[in-house]
Amino acid sequence: MGSIRLDLGCKIHPEPIDLFDGIPDSLLLVIFNKIGDVKSLGRCCLVSKRFHSLVPQVDNIIVRVDCVISDDDSSASSVASGKSRHPISSFFRLFLGLFKPFQSFTQFINPTTRRLPPFAEDLDFETERNSVTHHSPTQVLKNFNEIKLLQITLPSGELGIDAGVLLKWRADFGSTLDNCVILGASSVIHNLNSGSACSVDNTDIGNNSNGVALDNGNIPESFYTNGGLKLRVVWTISSLIAASARHYLLQPIIAEHKTLESLILTDSDGQGVLSMNKVQLEELRVKPLSASSASKRTLVPALNMRLWYASHLELPNGMVLKGATLVAIKPREQSKIEVVGSEGNWVASAFEEPFGTAARMLAKRRTYCLEMNSF
After folding, report:
1. If I label 59, which of 177, 210, 214, 230 is the partner at 20 to 30 A Cα–Cα?
2. 39, 64 in Cβ contact below 8 A?
3. pTM of the entire structure?
4. Please, what is the angle between helix 228-249 and helix 87-96, to 10°?
5. Do the beta carbons of residue 240 and residue 177 sit within 8 Å?
6. For residue 68, what are the contacts with CB-CB under 8 A and spacing of at least 6?
7. Which residues of 67-93 are buried (b: 16+ CB within 10 A; e: fewer)?
8. Which among 301, 304, 282 is positioned nearest to 292, based on CA atoms?
9. Is the peptide bond between 137 and the residue preceding it cis, with omega within 30 degrees of 0?
10. What is the pLDDT of residue 88?
């Protein structure tokens, strides 16, 4: 009887079942690739040895840079805002250090009770007394073995522009600049009621059905005398310098990751986008880039440019661009710039909406051709 009571008092504790064990590695990699964010993947490494071994095989990575510091800054708290500076002065900080190194993650596992895996430590987890460590994207990515798609996002654009000014650029690079498109406007006004009159000074300027000022496509004389052309030249040079500096700083990543098929370096402000496809990446590996002797950036070759201008451009969504300007750029050694047909798609599709529409509207206007020497 006593033995029966003993048996009845026993409790059965079945061995815990890890449901993740039933998921194949291929499916887990699909999930990790959907996550993409390098910080989140670093946390996944802490879940289990299996996750720790799979994360380095992820081929779609997103790196969001937290801050940028110059080489001469002794503290990571020095962050370059760049918004109130003149564009040229911003570039000098850019040359000193474009990648603001990674700020570490907040450690959520007590380091005294569990040693972090080496890979997780490389992904910027704090290891001592909530101290902040910093790593460049090159360091963070060194443990990923099969990256195919890589996107790096800076905290802000490099160009300091006045409030209300629009300036966007997109550049494609191989071993040097392949093409660049720049869209700018001296002011942007959002007309909440597109059917009503917009608060834009358009005295003596009529609009056609496409929302473009009726100026016969000609640039007004005042554009040359009031500094309008000079400002557009500054925008163009500034954008090219920013793009070439980004390209220069990507070299270690491109050299180390032979599997890369697509690389995009953008910023959270949406100011500039540098793009490289598989062919362009391979070109850079085979043909060394030409670096500028004056700064840490890729040498910009001699260029042919096309410029379109409208003093008043109203978009279908009611947005009004004053002094709207579109610039299409290609190296002089390439064929003549085409803006229509399949060859012109790189101009029409350079920007997301509504700015893609603005580019297409401007490209229908009269074209002005310019040239620029290498710098």
Report:
1. 177
2. yes
3. 0.74
4. 10
5. yes
6. 79, 80, 97, 98, 99, 100, 101, 154, 155
7. bbbbeebeebeebbebeebebeebbeb
8. 301
9. no
10. 34
